[in-house]
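Technical note accompanying the year-one report. For the benefit of new consortium partners, we illustrate the data format agreed upon in the data management plan: each record pairs a sequence with a structure-token string. No post-processing was applied to the example shown here.
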Amino acid sequence: MTDTQPAIEVSVAAAPSVVWPALRDPALIRRWHGWDYDGLDAEIQEIYLGEVVEDPASYSLVVSGGDRFSLHEHEGTTIVRITRPRRDSIPDAADWYDDVTEGWTTFLQFLKFGIEQHGLGDRRTLFLEGPVAQGDSAQHLLGLDKLTGSRRGDHYSAVSTTGDLLSGVVCFVGEHQIAVSVDDLGPGLLQFGEQPVNSARPNGGAQILLAVYGLDDEEFSELEERWKEWWQARPPAEPAT
């Protein structure tokens, strides 16, 4: 990553010809990009199928907003790279630049996990975000402090404050977020981390994104209700200063 033009990468255990449709087919894109909400299909249409520049022969795509995807074959895997436009090139969106960078970092982990673990099959997602008390974090609220210092590939097991026994493997450790697999949810993928400080969030915040596979309607509804109640009961954040 450079100071002027960040690049975000992930290695996917699949050929570029397998990964490329996940960038072009809206039904596949929604299985790794974003989370379930009423505007997701419109968001996908705008970002990936609107004013874009694509070159299927070289597996490259510049999406709406100027972020460039490129796929690079490497020793039987595909390096998926997102090259971001420079911050100063989009002054109107500068306040949300870090959010987009962290968002792409998150979504690439869901792309990798979805392809490698589930052949990009259907998923259900739970998304929680909001302010937290000073010095608090999504990791602490989840009861996953033991993951501090963990590295990718480490196994973990912990009883979360949500009431779930979470166990699996650490999939990603970044500066602002962590992603872990959850064996009992498909396996599922749990991402949690910080939301950057900006003018709308002077004290920052926390974000949790959970993708689950193979749960029926009743099982997912129970999980969703329990986690939302747990999130609403978190300690209150201090007023913005």
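Partners are asked to follow this layout when depositing records. The chain has two domains: 7-118, 124-232.
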